[in-house]
Amino acid sequence: MRKPCCDKQHTNKGAWSQQEDQKLIDYIQKHGEGCWRSLPQAAGLLRCGKSCRLRWRNYLRPDLKRDGFGEDEEDLIIRLHALLGNRWSLIAGRLPGRTDNEVKNYWNSHIRKKLESSHRNIGFTRLRAEISSAARSKSQANDPETLLAVNNQVFDSNGGKPEPSNKSSSDINLDLTLSIPSKNKQESSEEN
DNA sequence: AAAAGGGACAACCGCTGTGTT
DNA sequence: AAACACAGCGGTTGTCCCTTT
Question: Does residue A158 carry a pLDDT above 70?
Answer without folding.
Answer: no
